[in-house]
Amino acid sequence: MKIVIAQMEHETNTFSPVETPWESFGPSGPYIGEEAYRAMKSTKTPIGAFIDVAESVNAEVITPVAGFAYPSGPVSGEAYDRFCNLIIGAIQEDCDLIMLDLHGAMVVKDRTLDGEGTLLGKIREAAPFTPIAVSLDLHANITAAMVNNANIIVGYKTYPHIDMYETGALAGDLLLQLHRGEINPKMSWSNIPLLAQTLKMNTSEGAMKEYAERAALSEQNPKVLVSSAFGGFPMADIPDAGMSAVVITNDDEQLARTECSEILEVAWKQKEEFIWEDTPLKEAISHAKSLAEGPILLLDHPDNCATGATQDTMTTLREALEQGLTDIAVGPIRDPEAVETLILAGLGAQVSLPVGGKTDMPAINKKGEPLQLTGIVKNITDGSYVITGPQFTGVEASMGRTVVFDTGDAEIVITEKLQEPWDRGVFTSVGIEPTQKKYLLLKSRMYFRPVFLPIAKHSVYCAGVGVGSSDWTMFNYEKIRRPIFPLDNIKS
Questions:
Q1: In the CATH hierarchy, which top-level class contains the domain 2-274?
Q2: Rounded to 5 degrees, what are φ and ψ at 75?
Q3: 3-class DSSP state for residue 170?
Q4: What is the reported pLDDT for 456?
């Protein structure tokens, strides 16, 4: 048996000015062929699980491509075409099953608003009868094209996403059951006009927890194979953005439809609970200053690269320094220009230079505002480390060339590439021990939780500047379906 396994992951923030070329999908672009197999095997990711599932039945594994890019602006058409051609080329060489590690919120420049649905449509044309299993992120914006062109769709159940591997394993196992004739999957999906904010999608608390628990409850029915409750990705200005559910039953279409409806009803009844309200930045920093014991997390969530932000706005750090905070570890901040300058200056050199603020954000009418700083080049590394935390475990992370710039009050990790702080390795790999700092300024909104929350005494959300903002009034939605809450006042 031959199984084609591929990864194409990108969450597209259509308001982001950050470009997403082919090179963004890995340390130097996506992994191809055998390189993809070697890079992703033994990782706690959906594609890692797919490989394990396939090898458990002694299948021949074909991995044409594996690529993950940080959320950013629309994917280039050239990159998307290369992904599609590699995957379809492998399928056309004859295979028995297809397993795809996708995100569910990819927008492609000059191609499609539904990268995953369009890819699946192309695959279905090339292989009309080959069973397809797909793993999706909890933030997927589900479309009819995705559901109509796949046999199995399974979404992450957690946010932060600590069940990536389990999601892939379940999707792969269900596909094998289908192949053996043990099940007859019937898949139904539906959505609601609710643009929930990601800061309200923590599956361990509040309305999101109840929503996820209702999906889990449906799986207690022996006829239900899997229920996936999707939060959606709100920073995508596309018609299908918003909350959705996908339910797969064993040969019971009506049950699948009923469960979808009831799961989504739980979310809709609490729609106001999915809206985030920020504390003003000055007030948040002042509160952090009043706290005695650290580490204290300063969460600069609007500039979070895992939401598609630039990761270089300096508003929060500027405010922290102006209010006199000291003993701060900051990062990562993406500024290739500053990295180059500091490396040329050399280890131990004292340098004055503008840091961050190199990227304009026309979607929110903001110009980049660098912060002039003076400090010492404390460390220089290649920015590589292996993730040991529960998200992307075993994956080699690449921050690009990285510099620790010590201003006295703050040690700033400055990188060439975007990097979400999903692992303490963003600090420990460059010689900073985060447990020993009073403040940790992280450009993160949710993924910090599994690794940084256990060491923190306090967490303070900081309403800085960025295209990951939770203030909907900053964005001009043009393509999204209307009416939709909270952009429109829907009362029932």
A1: alpha beta
A2: -65, 140
A3: helix
A4: 98
pLDDT digits (tens, 9 = 90+) for 5-25: 999 999 999 999 999 999 999
Residue with tokens 């996506």: 30
Provide the residue count of the chain: 492
- So where are the chain's domains? 2-274, 281-469
Confidence of residue 377 (pLDDT cuts 50, 70, 90): very high
Distances (CA, A) of 364 to 28, 361, 442, 471: 30, 6, 22, 10
As a whole number, mean pLDDT of residues 198-217 equals 97
Q: What is the DSSP letter of 382?
A: -
- Asked whether the beta carbons of 210 and 85 are under 8 A apart, the reply is no
**H or E, element range at 135:** strand 132-136
Residues β-bridged to residue 488: none
Between the alpha carbon of residue 249 and those of residues 151, 444, 475, the distances in Å are 11, 37, 39
Pair type for strands 185-191 and 244-250: antiparallel
Q: Model's pTM, two decimal places?
A: 0.94
**Tokens representing 199?**
């800061």
Angle made by CA atoms 140, 449, 102, in degrees to the nearest 5: 25
Cβ-Cβ contacts under 8 Å for 113 (sequence gap 6 or more): 107, 238, 239, 240, 479
* Spatial CB neighbours of 338, under 8 Å, sequence gap ≥ 6: 353, 354, 355, 356, 403, 405, 414
Number of helices followed by number of strands (H, E) in the chain: 13, 20
- Residue 396: per-residue pLDDT: 87
Would you list the DSSP string of 402-463? EEEEE-SSEEEEEESS-----STHHHHTTT--GGG-SEEEE--SSTTHHHHGGG-SEEEE--
Report which of 66, 4, 5 is spatially closest to residue 35, judged by C-alpha positions.
Answer: 66
